[in-house]
Amino acid sequence: MTLTPRSLVVAGLLVFLALVPAYVAATGNAFLMTLFTRIIILAIAATSLNLILGYGGMVSFGHAVYLGVGGYAVGILAYEGVASGFAQWPVAIGVSALLALIVGALSLRARGVYFIMITLAFAQLVYYFGVGLDRYGADDGLTVYRRSQFGELINLSNRTVFYYLCLLLLIGTIYLVWRLINSRFGLVVQGARSNDRRMRAIGFPTYRYRLTCFVVAGAICGLAGALLANHTGFISPATMHWTRSGDLIVMVVLGGMASSFGPLIGAVTLLVLEELLPVLIRLLASGFVEPQVAVKVSEYWQIVLGPLFLLVVLFARGGINGLLEGMRRG
Amino acid sequence: MADALIEIDRLTKHFGGVVASDGITLTIPQGELHAIIGPNGAGKSTLIGQLTGEIAPDSGLIRFEGRDITTLPVYRRSALGLARSFQITSLFLDFTTLDNVALAVQAHAGHSFRFWRNARTDAALREPARAVLAQVGLAQRADELCANLSHGEHRQLEIAMALATRPRMLLLDEPMAGMGPDESARMVQTLKALKSRLTILLIEHDMEAVFALADRITVLVYGRVIACDVPAAIRANAEVRKAYLGAPDEQAGEQVAHG
Question: Pseudo-torsion of CA A106, A108, A112, A114, nearest 10°?
């Protein structure tokens, strides 16, 4: 691998992520650990979305629903006394895959905006189903008191152990997606994005390949959901809200569609900015106005984030990943 | 006919009030290069669409090697050996030239539920794809991004894509559309080399090419077959001349008369 700005940034990012627990141990800044565990989990979800959105051209506007389903699988099983992760995680992945199979089977018959609307409709359906789950907290959500139990194998209650497990799963997911998209299967999915009509003309029944891809993405996102419920110790319908699906799309587009590390770059950028912008705005504003007013002003941090996102979409078609690639050519 | 490869029987298709195919009956034997000519709007592309399965006919039958394929989906017909090129170039522009053809090879190399091995280094796909590219004179352009090829090269690649599926029959929808004289001449050479090895249905406006290549010619006007014969007989056919001279495209009529 040659040293390009992009590979330097990716390598730097991975080293940084690997060193977060060491930094936290040295400084006692537990917040950083919480933030980056969350970023890594959502990066897994974004990477799974990239598989269908970036490589497959399937703009799913309901991908967060699998985060919720995976999370609820863990939460509900824990609530009902099944604490074993060996049961919880396969169920989280399996139910997400099954839901993706149903949603995909119906939505993939449609194209363009109709496809987007069907995925959104299903997501909202499941969201309201969650709101109606009285036994499991309805719209207040469900507290997960114990992290998934894996016996002697691994202790997820240890935050550092959990962090590294998430990081390992993220790298595993990125590698898996990379293998997939370069395999025969992946070329069919990408061909169908590029020119579905020609794919059928040369003899591919594209529907079944796209559906399989959709199911794989849902299953991976279900795993991310199981991790998220373990991380926050809580799951609620809000996790599945369509705005959460929008966040995942923003991560993928911001970082760079159809690139291996784009979703990770996008997740880090978006979530770090979400934390950083309010602080920066408050510091900046307190130079001019009363502290209370500065706090008020900092609540409008999205006014800064919105245009930033717009600039990337308008001027960097490959997202941040594309910008970094472009730098090499000067 | 014993050695008929494709039999089209009273094929009819309406679009609203327009008759695009009006009881078309046509049999093409194995190994023939059969050209279909006719003025714009005669229903030539609609006919190809029905043969490949993209358009469902209102009535009539299509048999391929004696088997009724009238309702088979597009990809199944491709598996049987029917391959097409598109009038308007329809390629994978964000793939390389070789990727394009390799994908067509892959379509006929068993199922593609293979999730792990890198398909771009798979000799079983790349070698046959390179061979097909050499056949149409694009070997030098194998690693070029498809979007960067010239129009003429795109047209050659269209043919390569169809060939890579190892078809029994080629359906070529205006392969010379938009080509300059040099490019056209090259395409005629490519098609001459394929002729007799494959059965070919050729739709083309370039009359010089049609008369140089075709074994038989069918003339389609308003969805109806008005003549079907060897080139010399078509050239002499009064009804054909009238149909062409009546059409706004008078040059085509001239070419029928003198080409």
Answer: 0
